[in-house]
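Intended use. Records like the one below are meant for learning the mapping from a protein sequence to its folded structure. Do not use them to infer anything beyond what is encoded.
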Amino acid sequence: MKKAEVGNVIEFRNGLQGTVEKVNENSVIVDLTYMENFRDFELDQRTVVNHKNYRIIKESAFKN
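Structure written out for the chain above:
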């Protein structure tokens, strides 16, 4: 499985989407404000997602 990189857009848990802000050893920190309907879900702005629980839907335009 390919790990996400900073700037990637990922999808997880029943269709939620977000932008990866930080990559940790076992997880990523995701900014959920990427979704237009973010406020409808009453979620925190950021969340942590294990590498096993997401799929990359858009690669970052910026490469390190």
